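Hey, resending since the last one bounced:
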Amino acid sequence: MVKKGLKLKISIIGLLVFGFFFGFRNNSPLLIDNTHLSDKVLVNETEQEIKMIAVGDIMLSRGVEGKMIANEDYRYPFLKTADITKNADIVFGNLETVIVTGRRIQDNEMVFKTDPKAAEGLNFAGFNVLSLANNHIMNFGKDDLESTIKILDENNISHIGAGVGNDEIYKYVVKEVNETKFAFLAFTYNSDQRKTGTGDVYGVANMDVEKMKVAVQEASKVADIVIVSMHAGIEYQISPSLFQENFSRNAIDAGADLVIGHHPHVVQTVEVYQDKYIIYSLGNFVFDQMWSNETRLGAIAEIIFQDKKIISLKFIPVKSYDYSQPIAIEGAEAEKILGRLRY
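The structure tokens again:
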């Protein structure tokens, strides 16, 4: 018995020495890479990863539409980034443009609308959820808001954050991927709600914290992941405002798993709050604001989910060219954006 016990001890020690020697040669620890060891142990190998792509402001009017017409291609703004976006399970952005037939908006105007042909570009890029909660979706009133909603519905693109009637305005949309349910909600700083002659309300979901909390809690009852879109902040400022911070943290406290921000037209910082991510602003994605380098720069967020939680968040810096077309970039400008997004 003593000899057998001694042999067993020697065998165990030998295995440990073997693992230590071969696991650490070439300075490469066994089983360890950029992922925490605990994550490797706990990840269910059979659970499929789910990829979500989120982008910044999408404006398909004014100079952008001019480029689409000149190139005879309503996919033109997305040609250089579609390979990044269209293969994701969920592709989300903020649509800051009414979709309706009519005259072309001139470059000096501050109202945005685009031809229904622009839906071709949105489909080409893979968008399947869009926020309408912003300060431009009501530029042309109820009929054009309803036109936008109708065209998105016809193209199987879900929409949140605006509509006719409170139920539509504050509704959440659920997307199910690989048995994981994602609920999306959207809110904006501007309280643009109007009434028809019969008293029906229409407009956008404003950033009323109490209404947001109720909406998030209701969404949490049916979804595994709740994502809140926030259209707010001080334009052209790279740091979030107290209003953005307060709203986002309240959303997380209410049960949101991720907050994605738009509106400042520049990339802002990322915060980890209660172990959840707040992306304060992804900057411009498709826009004609070529007058400054900051407004030309943006970021694409790639979020990977597994086992009903976020396991990876990374960013792809982009820069706008030709008044309409974002292109992924590298080098000093990319490092500048990535540095700002470091969390």
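The radius of gyration is 23 Å.

Sorry for the duplicate.
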